[in-house]
Amino acid sequence: MTERVALVTGGGRGIGREICLALARDERKVAVADLREPEAAETVALITAAGGTAIAVAMDVTSSDSVQQGILQVVDELGPIEVLVNCAGWDELKPFLSTDEDFWDRIIEINYKGVLRTVHACLPSMIEQGFGRIVNIGSDAGRVGSSLEAVYSGCKGGVIAFTKTIAREVARKGITANTVCPGPTQTPLIDEIVSASSSGDKVIGAMANAVPMKRLGQPSEVASAVAYFASEPAGFITGQTLSVSGGLTMA
Question: How many DSSP H helices and E strands does the chain contain?
Fold first, then answer.
């Protein structure tokens, strides 16, 4: 593997942390971007302890200024970004009729517009370099829907469609764009969602039961798929949507 520069949003914990570790094992220099600066620093410490190169970047994907400032830091400290992984995300379990526009806006700003902001900021440099790997973290909720996650599901469906469109637009520029869709995965966010909802345990239990393998996924299992899409050998794969869900989605 070439020691290319990778930016991972939401890299401080959960799936994002495992993605950072997987990319570092592939000899990428990793920028760990997260609102949670102490957790981003922990991810960096894990990478550097294993002999890799990484920096922590304070980034709020709901702010274009924050995204731009973070990218400037990455370019200054590590070099031009060649691999972009959008993993930052957030949700709460609520019936759609129990939500309001403030809730919609927060979900959309983080889960959809956050992806637009980072891709819009990183893509020009990738085009100039003639190389890029964009991997956006979707969700099986965006493929088949998910009870109590109407707005989140809509955002993740939008991420899938957006990624396919970007893949078409830059197909001749040496850049690929793909989506990895986790099914129910054991992460800190899942724990928070369960804690915040009176029916959280029931919903998560139902999700795990719906998986043919009858278990939740592990963050490292999602990270392995991301690392492949971000690799040099995956250069002829673009516009694809891959579920890592124990067979929950088979289409």
Answer: 10, 7
